[in-house]
Amino acid sequence: MKTTPQLAIVLTLIATFFWGSNFQVTKFALTSLPPWTASVERFFYAVICIFIFFVWKEGIHSNVLKQNWLAFIVLGAIGVAGFNGAFFVGLQSSNPVTAALIVATTPISANILEAIINRRLPGLMRVIGMAISLLGVALVITNGKLILGDVVIGDIIIFMGSLGWSIYTVGTRVFVKDATPLATTSWTMLFGAIILVFIAIFVESPITALSSGTFESHLACLYIGIGGSTVAYLFWNMGVAIRGAGKTAVFFNFVPMFSLIIQLMMGNIPSLPQMIGVVITIVGVLLGQGILSDVRFMNIDKNKN
């Protein structure tokens, strides 16, 4: 099946859905597991799943690994171990609402980084779209107050993690050569998981923690390992490969949107400012992608005909 730009958008949205659900599911994982150990269990499942699919779909080509091993290790350390470790550790002290807003700034930093590397400023409409979507996210997760409380250490940790994800998003396109999205996902995830194991051994007692964890926590790790890691990382990298890092990163604003939808399904009704924020975010993303402009010009052409 050929991956078209339209299909890449759908795959990117699926990835952000899984990441949005991770905010809720992670709460179950952390009830009985320490953060680094939970991250290790998550990527234990993820690496097994992604490599089974990788070997079946493409097979392991040693030349790809030889050409990109350093990039895979660095990107795995930053985008897998760094981002997810920061996410788990940061949520121990950070408010989930504040954390979601911090993570939502990722598209901005990714576009800035890509612009610096390519020595090219992003288009004006993309910048406007990002600003509008970020405003919508702020309305949703602050319930229209647009005020953040005092910054805590968890906020700083999550912000550093979001910067790491920006580097990973841009780096998979800039520094990885002649590798498919599946190969990039598999190798970066493997090296990131190995790094997570060493960190967990150094700062925690993962064997003891895993043996004392509850069934719910292990089930939560299984979910975020397969859906929130394997599927999400693969679909995200496919979107980056087809549409570019800047255009793909804008969709990261949908992560808190999907988180809100899941809360709604669990019986938590959003307020009017939050619903307005949802609409503003979607409009901002569509504007940043040029979709609204395309629709407008299509209508103009039809009227001319």
Automatic annotation (TrEMBL):
It is a multi-pass membrane protein. One of its GO terms (cellular component) is plasma membrane. The keyword rRNA processing does not apply. It comes from the Bacteria. Keywords: Cell membrane, Membrane, Transmembrane, Transmembrane helix. Its main location: membrane. The chain crosses the membrane at residues 39-56, 68-91, 97-117, 124-141, 147-170, 182-203, 215-236, 248-266, 272-292. It is found in: Cell membrane. It holds the Pfam family EamA. Residues 7-141, 153-287 form the EamA domain. InterPro entries: AA-Vitamin_Transporters, EamA_dom, EmrE-like. Belongs to the drug/metabolite transporter (DMT) superfamily. 10 TMS drug/metabolite exporter (DME) (TC 2.A.7.3) family. This is Threonine/homoserine exporter RhtA. It comes from Xenorhabdus ehlersii.
